[in-house]
Amino acid sequence: MLLIFLVGYVAISGCKSVKPGRHNAFANDGYKLVWADEFNKTGQVDTSVWKFENGFVRNQELQWYQRENAWCEKGLLIIEGRKEARPNPNYTAGSRDWRRSRPNISYSASSINTSGKRAWTYGRFVMRGKIDIGDGLWPAWWTLGVNKQWPSNGEIDIMEFYKKMLLANIACGTATPNKAEWYSKTYNIDSLGGKKWAAEFHVWRMDWDENAIALYVDDTLLNKVELSKLVNKDNSGFNPFKQPHYMLLNLAIGGMNGGDPSKTPFPNRFEVDYVRVYQKG
Question: Which of 40, 142, 246, 260 could form a disulfide with 119 if both were Cys (CB 3.0 to 4.6 A apart)?
């Protein structure tokens, strides 16, 4: 792959200019950079790469997802959680659907993904970011497989935080619809350094090949699972981690896992310096 060195950045064929720093540290073991978003612009997120989710989406979360809460600024992707008070445009009195039964929107945030635009099978995925660890906040960087319904499509939570826990999770399907088999590791945020740790940027990484998925933060291994264990437990023989996955970046609030945000100051931010994908060959 052709490398052209510029002042302060590295331009890579097929990718945007890459920020200096640890780029070369990840381009080893036969890996080469194949895609990146460095967020080196001001204004809107690049919609040729990213799609936005809209409204109340999953997990009975409190936030209304909208475009306005994500933008690029000073070389960072900003995903902002806000406290709001306005009517739910999809409200239906008496509805049993939690998305429609809420009369009002109390919080907003953004969720972006590369579904239908970018997907990869195997590789080294790297994200440098900073998370807010306030109560009720649920930032995540994760992937989903392109084929089959969740969880039989496979889920990888490379970075997930809620309720004072940093998580590294992998999920495949079972014989019961909508029930996942989880391979999870959790770490109390206070054991990592608490607020002081969260005030700094950190590097999350996934190394995923035909043998295993390994998840790291700052080069510390958090979780590793062999692909042989991740075949869906429905007698289909389908392994959701031998197919392309797309990535998601989002800040959720509350819901089934996020906790109570009522005493957390708003607005707050999930900040991303870059996301990169390296592959072999």
Answer: 246
